[in-house]
Input
Amino acid sequence: MKAVVLTGINALGLDHVANPVAMPDEVVVRLKTAAINHRDVWIKTGNYAGLRFPITPGSDGAGVVTEVGPGVDASWLGREVIINPSSDWGHHERAQEPRFSILGLPKAGTLAEAIHVPVSQLAPKPPHLTWEEAAALPLAGLTAYRALFSRAGLEAHEKILISGIGAGTAVFALQFAVAAGALPFVTSSSPEKLAKAHQLGAKHGTLYTHGGWAKEFGDHYGPFDVIVDSAGGPGFGDLIELAAPGGRIVFFGATRGNPAELPTRKVFWKQLSLLGTTMGSPADFAAMTEFVTRKGIHPVVSDVFALDHVDDAFALMERGGQFGKIVVRISPD
Output
């Protein structure tokens, strides 16, 4: 079968690899669509722990079950499914265990014509979604859902600030906040992305590239009960200023590095909660797919590329030109 194979740092290409085989308690999914994430870019560029080559990247996928392994009911054959990219979360909802892993490294990922995964990692494809929307959902949707609800406990009518709108997880956070009845606000470096966020339900937005943005924005629209961030870095102190007393700052990335300093006095005086999160548990994934189905949420698909043009998909992600998810169409039908 055809698969995207990373043979070394920035050495990405399309190759033929062996067809997957369903092991006990596994299935083979013939993939219709896949999607890429910043994680895939970091693996490609060598900026991720545990690198190994060759590897097929990709954590998001949707398709049809074509083979079942020993111990799996034959009724799974022919089902349209999405794949939970999280494997071996463990026994506790509070955090993943050391054996936890994500599709695309160390296990072969979804940028291929087929994949074998444990049947426990499958969920029915929400019937209202296209194949492109279905592939866009798993990793970013799971991360956003756990951040907002399992960790930050977002409630209706609370004000939430989402930084860096445009990336897939941030867009899901916006959509989920709107669906939950919260009042979302956003930041971006792009006026065009702020305009698109407003169309999705953001109340107001601002450019974080403008000096003094945090004080001006906070004076007009703050403070915020929940703040969602994936950047960290020198701007993290602004988020502490913008948080309401008793507020929760939840973060799942540090693309701008660690903060130079943390104003701990403001954190304890304002009774703030700083909440780290990553991916989500099987219970989070089940709750997320149910929420998306019940609320009729359609993931925002930025661009769609054919498997033969996966280099263009990665290039778009690397320059940050997307709003929403970048999808790769595996099967033409």
In short: The chain is about 30% helix and 30% strand. Residues 2-137+300-329 form a domain with the Quinone Oxidoreductase; Chain A, domain 1 fold (CATH 3.90.180.10). The CA atoms of residues 96 and 310 lie 31 Å apart. The mean pLDDT is 96.
